[in-house]
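task queued by scheduler; priority normal; single chain, no ligands, no partner chains; default sampling; output format set to structure tokens
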Amino acid sequence: MTTLPWLDQDHLWFPPAEQALDDPDGLLALGGDLSTERLILAYRSGIFPWYSDDQPILWWSPDPRCVLFPEEIHVSRSLRRTLNRGYFTITSDRAFPRVIRLCANTRAEGTWITQDMIDSYSQLHKQGVAHSIEAWNPRGELVGGMYGLAIGRCFFGESMFSLETDASKVLMVHLANQLRIWGYQIMDCQVESGHLLRMGARSIQRSEFLSILRTCVDSSPDHSHWDLQWQWPGPEV
């Protein structure tokens, strides 16, 4: 039986991601804390926390890894029609506290976004590392959102929600195109879902993912402020 490392709160360290278990896929370590320093080290190392309130902190690095390369974002014919309508307004960092709360509270299957996680990612947002992307309907209601971490030329998506059809898809299109313009190389999606795969995400080997991180997490992107300005060009495209 494999013994997983138990992380000490006073020692900022992770075992190599390659040491993660095959079953359950990607489980690497337990314990530690959710300090902003540890979270940043985790993402830079291809690791993320995922656990329930009744568990210790569990750290994961699955193989394969679901990612979206920004230039590979897929816009279906029906989504193109939605974008052409200009129904949703997309913003960034306008409502981080609401977005992370809605990501936690709108999942029918329950959530891993504990209060401790909300507190820690909110602190990362105050530090300019975590960001939210929002979708608003014409009545000014927040109907879709995503939050994640921007480190170097990598964006690590954490969770999203959608309260109206296509809200999360439209914000994904805006985010991917803005990341492409800024020179980001990859959007981490962690694990596969039908929604992500239909948007152009695909799975790559963990070794390839880690290689991309080593190249990109210390490279500065081509922007100074986190402000989504990309706009859908319109029906002529």
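post-processing summary
- The first strand starts at residue 6 and ends at 7.
- The CA atoms of residues 136 and 142 lie 5 Å apart.
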